[in-house]
Amino acid sequence: MLDYALLSALAAVVRTGSFEQAAQHLNVTPSAVSQRIKLLEERIGAVLIVRGQPCLATEIGERLCRHVDQVALLEASLRQSLPGLQHDERPVTLRIAVNADSLATWFIPAMAQTDGLLFDLVLDDQDHSADWLRRGEVVAAVTSHGEPVQGCNCHSLGSLRYIATASPGFVERWFPDGFDEAAARRAPCLIFNRKDRLQTIWLKEALGTEIRPPLHWLPSSQAFVDAALAGLGWGMNPEMLVREDLRERRLVALTPSLPLDVPLFWQQSRIVGPLLADLNRAVLNAARTLLTPSPAEA
DNA sequence: GTAACTGTGTGGCGTGCGTT
DNA sequence: AACGCACGCCACACAGTTAC
To answer: Which residues form the HTH lysR-type domain (predicted)?
Structure first.
């Protein structure tokens, strides 16, 4: 049987990055934390923390921390559904996978509509965020996967609309005769990371062929917009982020009539269902207000 | 039979000091 | 400065003993 006093020490060290801060967090001395970690490592038979600044969890340590988080969520969920149990005043931390563009546009307003929850967000591409749920590393995800992950409920959120945008100067230099295949092969394109396929998909839709333009790698939603504004390249930007720039002509759409709508889904673990009720409402509400309705819902 | 008391073992913690 | 180790203290659980 796992000793949760020891595990909570492990989780505190990993969360705070040091034995000292973990001790403050647990209201004990650093020595007590050190002894708990040592005992846990002896019992498990493996090193759980790489001592340093900051202290980091080993792979096994990480797995144990995730287990502690899940147990905490289950307990909080149980307390909510059994009114007889004493209420725990500590806020619950929810680990959620979300794509960067959702975070930069509509997800924070959803988070702000909840009360008494703490968030631990994991950033990943919308095509890969569901993998975090499958691995049990998050309790919910914003994903492009519409098929429910095992043990999860799935809600359609609508679509995040992307517009292929660039600065007027960039368009004048690289597309003087309009947007065509030959120019698209030469014009530098902005790409978020190696998982980002939006540009490829949109180019295929726009030109009917696969094109590999020269790439700038920019793993930040805001830097993506800034780079487009600076004339560094063209990129698929969320309409919500560039609406004002398009209106003021600081950015222009490469082909105004061809947005790319990426359908998004909210998948959340059923096992901590009661705990997520507030967040579910907030997410669906924010999505309804801020995202583009999917064709089936429109 | 039961309650109260006592002795012992164990676990957890803090202090002080050494090590890196 | 941060962490680990040795040591001692304290609280608690449990078993054995005694008194009623």
So the answer is: 2-58
**CATH match for A161-261 among 1.10.1740.10, 3.40.190.10, 3.40.50.720, 3.40.640.10:** 3.40.190.10
- Minimum CA–C1' distance nucleotide for A49: C3
A4-81 matches A161-261 in fold: no
Distance A33 CA to C19 C1' (A): 46
Peptide bond into A91 cis (omega under 30): no
CATH, domain range A4-81: 1.10.10.10
Q: Phi first, then psi: give them for residue A255, nearest 5 degrees.
A: -135, 100
Could you tell me which of A243, A227, A222, A212 has the C-alpha nearest to residue A170? A227
Q: Within 7 Å: CB of A2 and strand B? A: no
- Residue-wise pLDDT for A28-75, tens only, equals 667 677 777 777 776 676 777 777 666 777 778 888 887 877 777 877
A19 falls in which pLDDT band (50, 70, 90)? confident
Residue A131 CA to nucleotide B12 C1', Å? 41
Q: How far is the CA of A12 from the C1' of C1 (A)?
A: 20
Q: Nearest nucleotide by C1' from A41 CA?
A: C4
Q: What is the pLDDT of residues A85-112, one digit of tens each?
A: 555 556 677 889 999 999 999 999 999 9
Confirm whether any atom of chain B, the nucleic acid strand, is less than 7 Å from CB of A32: yes
CA distances from A291 to A180, A214, A220, A260 (A): 30, 31, 20, 13
Rounded CA–C1' distance between A295 and C13, in angstroms: 67
Architecture of the A92-158+264-290 domain: 3-Layer(aba) Sandwich (3.40)
Query: In Å, what is the separation between the CA of A171 and the C1' of B11?
Result: 72
Q: Which of A190, A263, A200, A199 is nearest to A225 (CA)?
A: A190
